[in-house]
Write a structure and sequence with these properties.
single chain; alpha/beta; Rossmann fold; 7-stranded parallel β-sheet; 3 helices; 21% strand
């Protein structure tokens, strides 16, 4: 069963939410996880793609946009361990999903872990409460992490 963690951020800024997601991706990647970053649309996917390139001099996360990665069996695993998209990824991405979407991903249950990021803006909190309620009603284990910084 998918473990779901809600990260409640101290900042409502859209950029701050995406930057925190970059740090989560970096950490999960360094721990050897396969990560799918779920966004609302192509514009968000492209924005997050650009942000991952700005992590810092000491960090590099090979990643690709959904639908753009090779499907041959001999592809280098490290090159596709991080995938960004707004549609369901290939079956080999079922480890960690980081959601930056306002909506519940219909395929979230195939992942081992799901990270939901919540800003302080009213609309963000409202959609997060709806997602939380949905997961709770479905019986998923939920954890909430209130982040001060």
């Amino acid at each position: 069963m998918t473990r779901i963690d809600f990260y409640v951020l101290a900042d409502s800024d859209h950029i701050a939410k995406f930057r925190f997601a970059c740090r989560l991706v970096d950490k999960a990647y360094r721990q050897g996880h396969r990560v799918f970053v779920y966004v609302d649309d192509e514009a968000d996917a492209n924005h997050f793609d650009k942000l991952l390139w700005t992590l810092g001099d000491d960090s590099f996360v090979p990643h690709t946009l959904g639908g753009a990665h090779p499907t041959s069996p001999d592809r280098a695993q490290d090159q596709t361990r991080v995938l960004i998209g707004h549609q369901e990824p290939d079956a080999d991405h079922d480890d960690v999903m980081i959601s930056l979407s306002r909506d519940v991903a219909p395929f979230f249950g195939r992942f081992k872990r799901l990270a939901e990021l919540v800003g302080t803006a009213a609309q963000d909190k409202t959609s997060a409460r709806e997602r939380f309620r949905h997961y709770r009603e479905c019986g998923y284990p939920l954890q909430t992490h209130n982040l001060d910084t």
